[in-house]
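sorry for the late reply, my laptop died twice this morning and i had to redo everyting from scratch. anyway the thing you sent over, i finally got around to it. pasting the sequence first so we're on the same page, its 297 residues, then the predicted structure underneath. double check i copied it right bc i was rushing
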Amino acid sequence: MPKNKLLVTGASGFLGWNLCQIARTNWEIVGTTFSHPATLSGVKLVQANLRDFQALKTLFLEVKPDAVMHLAAQSKPNYCQTHPEESYAINVTASANIAGLCAEAKIPCVFTSTDLVFDGLNPPYTETDPVCPQNIYGEQKVLAERKMLEIYPATTICRMPLMFGLPSPTANSFIQGFIRALKEGKAIDLFTDEYRTSVSASTAVKGLFIALEKTQGIIHLGGRERMSRYQFGRLMAEVLDLPSELITACRQQDVVMAASRPPDTSLDSSKAFALGYQPLSMREELARLAVALLKES
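ok and here's the structure:
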């Protein structure tokens, strides 16, 4: 039987690349790229400017997707802080347009938002807790959430935590720099005062498809464990057999960044857990990553 067709925006990005690799066995995937053309076996990748509404509309008419995973974004908070108009075009305007096109086609639409919609003062956060972003990236994601749900109430908004895993050819997760530095014998400073409920990309992808199939509205796809970046780094070094003595503690509040960061955006993902979303322990997640890294080397 022919597979259903899935349109994945941001397919060359870290999460998009991992999603396409996992989903290509069950879906016919058309993935969009913009600044980073790429090739992936079993996936049709097309270059598209999602900020151009006419180009976006043409893409929908040509692809005729059965569902959309909208992952494309400018997701670097510091960049959004210094380039608000440019990032607004992809993070908000394009997202609203995609919701409208999905509404016209009456097809499922899944959008990846962020735990940075919260101020980090009252964790863990449920889906019904009030948002209070502390930087422009978080503000843009809140606006995108609201606009998409206004335009197409059947949209599924997945708030994602900090994610890690195998990189795409053009995009790393936050741990690749850590691993490279430690292998080269270089010290790294990690925050003791920034907490997240991280998950691997493969776990996040499973959560996205559960959300696609089983829910609408807002859902959190965080991990089961709250960890600081420093705690995460120490555990990562232990599991991946890297020199943990090179990891030193520092405080987020002592580092000057363009975008302010909330201290603890841990997500309560009980709603997703009840639907069958099952993140592993952080140690297990990292052990699986260690195996995957060996296969890649």
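The domain at 5-165+199-225+267-280 is CATH 3.40.50.720 (Rossmann fold).
thats about all i looked at so far, will dig more tmrw
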